[in-house]
Each structure stands twice: as C-alpha cells, then as structure tokens.
From TrEMBL:
GO terms for cellular component: cytosol. One of its GO terms (molecular function) is ATP binding. It is found in: Cytoplasm. Signal peptide: none annotated. Belongs to the guanylate kinase family. The lineage of its organism: Bacteria, Bacillati, Bacillota, Bacilli, Lactobacillales. This is Guanylate kinase. Its EC number is 2.7.4.8. Essential for recycling GMP and indirectly, cGMP. InterPro entries: GK/Ca_channel_bsu, Guanylate_kin-like_dom, Guanylate_kinase, Guanylate_kinase_CS, P-loop_NTPase. Gene3D superfamilies: Guanylate Kinase phosphate binding domain (3.30.63.10), P-loop containing nucleotide triphosphate hydrolases (3.40.50.300).
Amino acid sequence: MPERGLLIVLSGPSGVGKGTVRKAIFESPDNDFEYSVSMTTRQKRPGEVEGVDYYYRTREEFEALIAEGKMLEYAEYVGNYYGTPLDYVNQTLDEGKDVFLEIEVQGAKKVKEQVPDGVFIFLTPPDLTELKSRIVGRGTDQLDVIEKRMEIAKKEIEMMTLYDYAVVNDSVPLAVEKIKQIIKSEHLRVDRVIDSYLKMLKEL
Ligand SMILES: Nc1ncnc2c1ncn2[C@@H]1O[C@H](COP(=O)(O)OP(=O)(O)OP(=O)(O)O)[C@@H](O)[C@H]1O
Ligand SMILES: Nc1nc2c(ncn2[C@@H]2O[C@H](COP(=O)(O)O)[C@@H](O)[C@H]2O)c(=O)[nH]1
C-alpha cells in the first residue's frame, strides 16, 4: 500500500488571491497535487464550470449530504454553504497522492481538528487596503457583499495562529514558489519518513 498522501490546506481571507495562487500552482508543469473541487450552494459566476470550479448544489441537496456524513468540512459563508466532499479526499490520499484544498478559515479549522498532520498555509494580503482593492477589482461582488467579506476578513486574519505557515501574497509567482517549498520540506519531515526507515531496518 502506498504511503498516504499529504493534505495541503490553503486558506486566508476572501480576495487575498487563494484562487489565483492555486491556479498558478496547478498550471505549473511540475505540479503533482490533486485539487479537491468544493461543493457550494452559491450561484455559478460567468465562466465558471460545474465540476471544475465547484459542484453547484441546492441547499436541500447540500444539507442532505451533510446529514449523510459526506462532507469532510463545510461552512456557511456570506449566506451560502461551501464544503469539501469527503470520499474524494480519502480515496486520493489513500492512493498516496497529495490533495490540495483551497477553503475559507472556519472550514480550515474543522479540517485541522480532523487531520492534524495536514499542512495548513495561511495566505495573507500585504495590507487591508490592498485586500479591499483586490475584491473590488475582481468585480464579482456587490458593495454590501464586499463590506461583509471585509468584516469577515478582519476576524479571519486573527485566526492565523491556527496555521503552520503564513505566506504574503504580494506577488503570485513568489507566493507559488514559497508554497511549493513548504510542501517539499513537509515531505522530508522525520515523522513522515520514519515508517519507511523502520521497515527497512526490520528487513535487514
Ligand atoms: N499577488 C497579487 N497581486 C495583485 N492582485 C492579485 C494578486 N493575487 C490575486 N490578485 C487579484 O486579486 C483578486 C482576488 O483574487 P482571488 O479571486 O484569487 O482571491 P480569493 O482569495 O480566491 O477570493 P475568494 O476567497 O473570495 O474566492 C483577483 O482579481 C486577482 O487577480
Ligand atoms: N469551508 C470551505 N470554504 C470554501 C470551500 N470552497 C471554497 N471556499 C471558500 O469560500 C469563500 C468564498 O468563495 P467564492 O468562490 O464565493 O469567492 C472563499 O474564501 C473560498 O476559499 C470549501 O469547500 N469549504
């Protein structure tokens, strides 16, 4: 059986650039992570594709999946549910592949409780003014939603202490490189490689 893969959680406030950084990581020719597509009850935005950006479900469908224990985590964010389907994550980790989640902070906290040996990376904005201008510049949200996202962002930044690493997203290529380096180092941690060495010693 292959060694179980690593669960990588990229989180941080709305608009910091999680999606942009994650897409850049997955577009790298050397990428070998598997992306866990989330499920949401929010409306599909122009250009988004079912099964690629999200699985779009009704509230009733989402709540049924929660009741059946099919979500690794879920959170309600600005009036919609967002969550990580459990089976895909477990199957892919069991195949020895690293799974990458891009989720908001409440959900990341729940994942940490269940998978404490995951790698938890908090993406931070250079400052709050820049964060707001990124959300406004993206042009996907009405003013009231932008204000809600900014209020939530301030509380989320306070939760950074729950994470293993903080990466400032001042430049996308630099943030991508730092995240790749973090994951490479995590793979070399003694507690991750010790089992294979112990097995080798037993076989001597
Ligand atoms: N390093 C950066 N410098 C300048 N702009 C950036 C940077 N990273 C991302 N952006 C821009 O910021 C905006 C928000 O990025 P993105 O949608 O990736 O954020 P997000 O954290 O995934 O947001 P949400 O959590 O709401 O989905 C986008 O317009 C994106 O192009
Ligand atoms: N807890 C979870 N949060 C998720 C998941 N998938 C995405 N998200 C986060 O939700 C907000 C809003 O996303 P948007 O697409 O409406 O801008 C953002 O912070 C995402 O990272 C998930 O499965 N669980």
